Amino acid sequence: MKQHQGFSLVELLIILVILGITASIALPRFQAWAAQSQQRAVALQLQSGISVARQEAIKRRAEVWVKPNGSTSADWSNGFFVATSDSTSFADCTAASADTSCLFVSEAFSDVTITAAVNEIVYGANGRSDVASDASSTNDSFEVCASTVSGLNSSDVTLKLSGGTELSTGDACS
Questions:
Q1: For 13-22, what is each residue's pLDDT tens digit?
Q2: Are 145 and 100 in contact (CB under 8 A)?
Q3: pLDDT top residue among 101 and 71
Q4: Contacts of 101 (CB under 8 A, 6+ apart)
Q5: Which domains does the chain have, with CATH numbers?
Q6: 18: exposed, middle or buried (C-beta count within 10 Å: 0-12, 13-18, 19+)?
């Protein structure tokens, strides 16, 4: 009698059922992991942009601004830009322009919200931010939350009084 190699239909169905159960358990965890990774990447990009502004202010010995995209917007979820002068050309930083005062422009962030009381950050030649240099001011921070998955902790970018930044895990996103 010749033996046949391969799987029977019953064995194949059992494997498919096991794969389906495993996938249904793993999918929500994968979605949470992907949302957390995207949230952290946005927080790192924000921290990096703020650090670039500080370094450029020290290097150029001039003010450098970090503002949310949009001429009148205070919504950091629309992205942000770093520019070297406070002028009406800030609106041009979000458009494709040859304005050399625009040092960095980020894209809008999808599926992520950024909550902050800060409308703009201005770094002076000494590397300290105008936002956090007031002695009565506490450390200002940006709370970055994924909007697609609930229950994740935020990624917080905090502006220190010295002008530097710190990335930390915050409280649960609302």
A1: 999 999 999 9
A2: no
A3: 101
A4: 83, 84, 85, 87, 89, 93
A5: 49-172 (3.55.40.10)
A6: exposed
